[in-house]
Amino acid sequence: MKLKITSLLLLAAIGAQAQKIDVAKAFKSAAQQTDVLVKNVDSARKIKPNLVSPRTVENGQLKMVVSRDWTSGFFPAELWYFYEQTNDKKWLALAKKYTEDIKKEQFNKGTHDLGFMIYCPFGNGYRVTKDTAYKSVIIQAAKSLSTRFNPTAGVIRSWDHNGDKWKYPVIIDNMMNLELLFEATKFTGDSSFYKIAISHADNTIKHHYRPDFSSYHVVDYDAEKGGVIKKTTAQGYANESSWARGQAWGLYGYTLMFRYTKNPKYLAQADAIAKYILNDKSTPADGIPYWDYNDPEIPNVSRDASAAAITSSALYELAKYSKNAKTYKAAADKILRSLSTAYISKLGDNYGFILEHSTGHRPAKSEIDVPINYADYYYIEALRRYQGKFNF
Questions:
Q1: What are the entry keywords (predicted)?
Q2: Active site residue 212
Q3: Whole-prediction pTM value?
């Protein structure tokens, strides 16, 4: 893997918490890259209009996805952040355009990823514009997501595929979709969404987390009797390993649980997960983890800049609530500075994606050491949070 990190940069990263991040430069670079991406997306859509959003670069080619892909919402959501940051109406028009293309997924009951797909773009869109049409989409998406909740198991089903592998799979990523439910309760006053989110989060604490506060990726539940059938992985190195992005999803998820509920048990969970992540011995000095903390081939395996970006963004929020604020802020700064200096695509490269060196699904030999849209989204969010700008 050709990481653009010199020994000097590594040494600098160790003391990065003492150095400020050049946010203006980082945003200018990101905006220039995204201009390139928009042009490439528009060109691709002229050929295949049903492909609505850029996901990654696969075999040297831009990979576009349809609206039902779990990553479809990150690109328009990112455009809303650019509009907020710059107040440039160009970004507003683009954000509206690409958000609209995913609107029909509010009725999709076949996925747990509606938080990513709908809340990221429509939530940001509503927050910025107060357009009630966006609010209606969010409410309907929450209704669709709620149909995947099983009260016996007490959790929201993640996947419908691979029935030969599991009966009722729930992945740690699913914590990220609970924000949609909380917002729907705020909009409607209907507490059923809130109660589903609480049940899911509580059962995830109970069944997904090991004593050291690392997380399993997939827990297979018994939907008829309740309880757990088995604990396994899909995207990690092994069932008992710590898949880096999974640890990041959990950190972010329990931080937002505390934001909405103010229940100290969620803050305690987020603190414990943060401690696990920040104390990991396999993570290099620049703060960007390998794709799985327990891959025996470390250091000769891919990093995951997406896990780092998610972690950095989550730590900035967690620092608002925790007594460990200084530690979290310093760690988030270190990660963000590394991303903004050593993991940035050269202008015009990678079809306009911002960050390099993410890992999507290594066991499936898919999206290894590539740019990917959710890495870019959480990177831009982390930059805004570094400035003290939070999207809630």
A1: Hydrolase, Signal
A2: no
A3: 0.95
